[in-house]
Amino acid sequence: MPNSNRPEHARDPVDADKVCRRRALDLLARREHSRSELQLKLLARAFVPVLVEETLDALQADGLLDEGRFIDSFIRSRIGKGQGPTRIQAVLQQRGIDRHRVQTWLRDSDFDWSSLAAGVREKRFGPGPPESFEERARQTKYLQYRGFEIEQIKAALELAAESD
User: Fold this and answer.
1) Domain total for the chain?
2) Domain for residue 88, yes or no?
3) Cα 93-94-99 angle, rounded to 5 deg
4) Residue-wise burial string across 99-129, b where 16 or more C-beta atoms lie within 10 A, e elsewhere
5) Are residues 101 and 125 both part of a single domain?
6) pTM recorded for the entire structure
7) Which domain covers residue 21, as residue numbers?
8) Quick check: is 2 in a domain?
9) Residue 13 maps to which CATH number?
């Protein structure tokens, strides 16, 4: 009777590379992953580190694992959720993406972060500008939490004042 507590790939080491690749592809089919994320998930499934590295290298060579595509997909998703560049960069760094690579993408994109900040501010607080110093501080703090830089926040607050 086979030991059911052992991982599937540990029962038949000859097919471990196929099982590892299949698990990685299953994860990639759901959404894009960074190499670091995929590595952690495969290691958590008790695959041998050398096998995981070989699998990830092969997936990258085949174009199935692409950090650039992951970064692009992730950033677009977070923009859709109303998050600013500072927060997006922090989360990507937590997911193992090089800070310089993210900064390059954010710098090279011609995305209007100030307009996004204005939209996020308006959705949360309404179209009118803040009427007191305390309210302005509250809105500023909220936009900072969402990951917007101070220049983007100032522009969002000025847009609200101009539209009033």
Assistant:
1) 3
2) yes
3) 10
4) eeebeebbeeeeeebbebbbebbeeebeeeb
5) no
6) 0.79
7) 8-61
8) no
9) 1.10.10
Place of tokens 């995981």: 52
> 4: which 2 tokens?
């059911």
9 has pLDDT over 70: no
**Residue 103 shares a structural domain with residue 126:** no
pLDDT of 122-153, one tens digit each?
999 999 999 999 999 999 999 999 999 999 99
Does one domain contain both 51 and 85? no
Q: Could you report the per-residue pLDDT of 36-94, keeping only the tens digit for each?
A: 999 999 999 999 999 999 999 999 999 999 999 999 999 999 999 999 999 999 999 99
Q: How many CB atoms lie within 10 A of CB 145?
A: 12
Measured CA distances, 45 to 18, 41, 96, 124, 152 (Å): 14, 7, 19, 41, 43
Q: Is the pLDDT of residue 14 over 70?
A: no
Looking at the structure, tell me whether residues 28 and 47 fall in a common domain.
yes
Q: Are 146 and 80 in contact (CB under 8 A)?
A: no
Write the single-letter amino acid at 129.
P
47 SS3 class? coil
> Which ranges of 2-149 would DSSP assign to H, the alpha helix?
8-11, 16-30, 35-44, 49-61, 67-80, 85-94, 99-108, 113-125, 133-145
